[in-house]
Specification:
This protein has 2 domains: 10-21 and 116-243, 3-Layer(aba) Sandwich (Rossmann fold), CATH 3.40.50.1000; 24-112. 45% of the residues lie in helices and 10% in strands. It contains 10 helices and 6 strands, in the order βαααααβαβααβαβαβ. The protein has a 6-stranded parallel sheet with strand order 3-2-1-4-5-6, with helices on both faces.
Length: 244
């Protein structure tokens, strides 16, 4: 039922790219932030400017990760190391957290401008599993998860929210570590083997596999079905409506 094995009673959904189309908003904000940073860095270090790639760079280094992890991982791929700073750093600070906070300002602006759209097939699926009595959690690296859920009108369909704010408060490492998904299962009182993970990010399906979850569903929004399988997805769909 619902494309799930019979032992699965709980759905753990990623947010961006699975339930909502905010992955597009995040991608655009990352590109704007990194391109400004890289242009300045290149000028200061007499190196050629190579812009952020919204395809390869986004999916390999940023997608699905907590904000600071994304900054650190991408910059490391360019041989750049910045001081960590703190989560409260000003957005103009030349730190990992400062760069991440610049990006977050752009995302919040886009959310407030009404940029949040849902995937209709995902909402149909979410309503169907809700009606059937399956447990439901959203597990997202985003610190803006609550705002996005409310803007999308689907907050009431989810019992538990584990997001960037919760991860920071609980000291949970982000994806590809499985800790945030495991925490979501714990809050629902369900063992991992009875949970299905729904993820569009390579780091996310890797987390689902690492956590010993009962089923990992890759959602291919970017033509990376093979990579999702290689990172741990049991099956790959283009839209959750395919599972109804």
């Amino acid at each position: 039922m619902f494309g799930l094995p019979p032992h699965v009673t709980t759905c753990l959904f990623d947010l961006d790219g699975v339930l909502t189309q905010t992955a597009l908003v995040h991608n655009a904000a990352w590109k704007q932030t990194f391109d400004v940073f890289l242009r300045q860095w290149s000028a200061e270090h007499a190196q050629p400017f190579v812009p952020f790639d919204s395809g390869a760079d986004y999916h390999k280094f940023v997608d699905g990760r907590q904000r600071a992890d994304g900054v650190r991982t991408f910059l490391a791929s360019r041989g750049i190391t910045l001081p960590e700073g703190t989560p409260d750093d000003a957005p103009d600070a030349e730190t990992v957290n400062g760069v991440g906070n610049r990006k977050n300002i752009l995302v919040l602006q886009k959310i407030q401008e009404g940029a949040v759209q849902v995937y209709p097939g995902s909402v149909d699926y979410l309503r169907a599993v809700t009606a059937a009595g399956l447990h439901r959690a959203v597990v997202s690296a985003s610190a803006n998860c609550k705002d996005v859920l409310e803007a999308a009108g689907i907050a009431d369909l989810l019992e538990v929210r584990v997001d960037g704010v919760v991860a920071r408060a609980e000291g949970l490492p982000g994806k590809p570590a499985p800790d945030t998904f495991l925490y979501g299962a714990k809050l629902l009182g369900v063992p991992p083997e009875n949970c299905a993970v729904f993820e569009d990010a390579l780091a996310g399906v890797e987390a689902g596999r690492a956590g010993g979850f009962g089923y990992v569903i890759g959602v291919d929004r970017a033509g990376q079905a093979d990579a999702l399988r290689e990172h741990g997805a049991d099956i790959v769909v283009q839209d959750l409506a395919e599972l109804l």
